[in-house]
Amino acid sequence: MPGIVIIGAGQAGASLAAKARTLGYPGSIALIGEEPVPPYQRPPLSKGYLLGETDLERLFLRAPSFWKDNKIDLSLGRPVVSIDRAAKTVQTRGTITPYDHLVIATGSSARQLPAAIGGSLAGIYTIRSLADIDAMSAEFYPGRKLLIVGGGYIGLEAAAVGAKLGLKVTLIEVAPRILQRVASTETSNFFRELHDANGVIILEGIGLDGLFGGQRVSSAVLSDGTELAVDFVIVGIGVAPRTQLAEDAGLEIENGVWTDAQGRTSDPTIWAAGECASFPYQGRRVRLESVGHAIAHGELVAGNILGGAEAYLAKPWFWSDQYDVKLQIAGLNAGHDRVVVRTGAQTSQSIWYFRGDRLLAVDAINDARAYMIGKRIIEAGHTIAPEHVSDGSLDVRALLSLAYFPRASAA
Q: For residue 28, which of 14, 97, 140, 242 sits 20 to 30 Å off, Cα-Cα?
């Protein structure tokens, strides 16, 4: 019988299926996954799993028995090839599944280097799936030369793993500094110095002209003419939302699958959740790439499928682990016009982003208290005076009592 069909067995799809059952949905739930493994966590892939410190079983979101016990039909290794909106069915290879409500939770895919510059050679990897990590794990042994293309969080996390395992790591970033798209100069400087201290060579403002070799990559030519010998390459140049199925079905696309505040697409019986979906946020449309968002968005959509009418109020938070440093981020810093740095104990610090008198985001480096305080202020819709943040004589906990509602003009 038709029920809820979810395309994508990642964090958002799995969270939605589980929440629908918890809320008492009595109908059938089909969770269709492209990968041949049960739903799993992705963040540890570029950290503990790549280091060999996290076992495969610890990645799984649920015990294997969970899906059967909760009457969720988990279908693995079955890519969906099309959506028929008129017939209200989805088709995999050889199977047609009817739906009452369809959820697109297809996530994102890693951007690849063009074949024209050598991107199709063997020995070039991206970090997105379990299969990606399994394919590259044999490359990591001491003394090998690793080139990382891209200075975002994925590239920096891979660089930290390589350095810890004794590889000779070079990271190139075409922008003037690492993390330029997502973080302040102060945050970039901290992590550049951290990697430098661990032997990673970071080249900023340098692009990649080409990768060369026979069938397998063996050298790289950079935009300044430098030629590097390499044993393998990791590409971390961002991700793109997986929208092809939605596009082919005629759904509206806007930096991802367009949804309203409740998670509906332009077809009222089709929903979208997680990284593939764009949604309204503070007067603009955004798309978030984080575990917290995938869980919260998936669970909200589950409730709305069951008759709720709740608008999604995103509470963005992210993290990155590099060496013995934990970076925790609350909020979104887009549009900031002022940065305040607060120094904590020993190697900890926090970077606070403001637009006018409005606190937008906090980067907390080895400072869990600053992260939690900043997160509480932001999620309450409050702000804090920049001079109070920078006042080292104030305990960070005191900032909560000094927080206030910002002027309407700064919203």
A: 242
275 shares its domain with 387: no
Residue burial 258-292, b: 16+ Cβ < 10 Å; e: rest: bbeebbbbbbeebbbbbbbbbbebeeeebbbebbe
| Shared domain check, 175 and 155 | yes
Contact 149, 179 (CB under 8 A): no
C-alpha distances in angstroms, 218 versus 123, 166, 403?
9, 19, 55
DSSP tag of 410? G
231 shares its domain with 246: no
Would residue 385 count as lying in a domain? yes
Which DSSP category does 311 fall into? P
- Tokens standing for residue 166: 């004794």
d(CA 154, CA 172): 13
Query: What tens-digit pLDDT sequence spans the chain (411 residues)?
Result: 689 999 999 999 999 999 999 999 999 999 999 999 999 999 999 889 999 899 999 999 999 899 999 999 999 999 999 999 999 999 998 899 999 999 999 999 999 999 999 999 999 999 999 999 999 999 999 999 999 999 999 999 999 999 999 999 999 999 999 999 999 999 999 999 999 999 999 999 999 999 999 999 999 999 999 999 999 999 999 999 999 999 999 999 999 999 999 999 999 999 999 999 999 998 899 999 999 999 999 999 999 999 999 999 999 999 999 999 999 999 999 999 999 999 877 789 999 999 999 999 999 999 999 999 999 999 999 999 999 999 989 999 999 999 999 876 444
